């Protein structure tokens, strides 16, 4: 199992990343990746989780605009 420090070395940021990605998303992604790896999530499970969260977000967005 990789440590957070090892994940930071493996997933080294590119120079083409925007400031938002470098400051915010990149810092969060190391910890989210570590959690998902420790829970033994597969790539397909991560994709499915992303789809489910996207659909839930879309439902909340539609419900908020109908009031």
Shape label: flat
Distance between the termini: 48 Å
Q: What is the string of helix and strand elements?
A: HHH
Q: pLDDT under 50 segments (min length 5)?
A: none
Structural class of the secondary structure composition?
Answer: mainly alpha
Q: What is the beta-strand fraction?
A: under 5%
Q: Number of helical runs? A: 3
Number of strand segments? 0
What about the largest sheet?
A: none
Helix content: over 70%
List the SSEs and their pairings.
Layout (H helix, E strand, L loop, with lengths): L3 H7 L8 H20 L4 H23 L2
Describe the structure.
With 67 residues, this protein is mostly helical. The chain contains three helices and no strands. The longest helix is centred in the C-terminal third of the chain and has 23 residues, at 43-65.
Q: Which labels suit this protein?
A:
67 residues; mainly alpha; 3 helices; 75% helix; flat
Short précis:
Helices cover 75% and strands 0% of the residues.
């Amino acid at each position: 199992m990789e440590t957070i420090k090892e994940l930071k070395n493996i997933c080294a940021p590119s120079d083409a990343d925007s400031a938002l990605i470098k400051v915010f998303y990149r810092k969060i992604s190391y910890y989210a990746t570590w959690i998902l790896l420790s829970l033994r999530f597969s790539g397909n499970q991560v994709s499915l989780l992303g789809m489910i969260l996207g659909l839930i977000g879309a439902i909340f967005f539609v419900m908020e605009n109908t009031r």
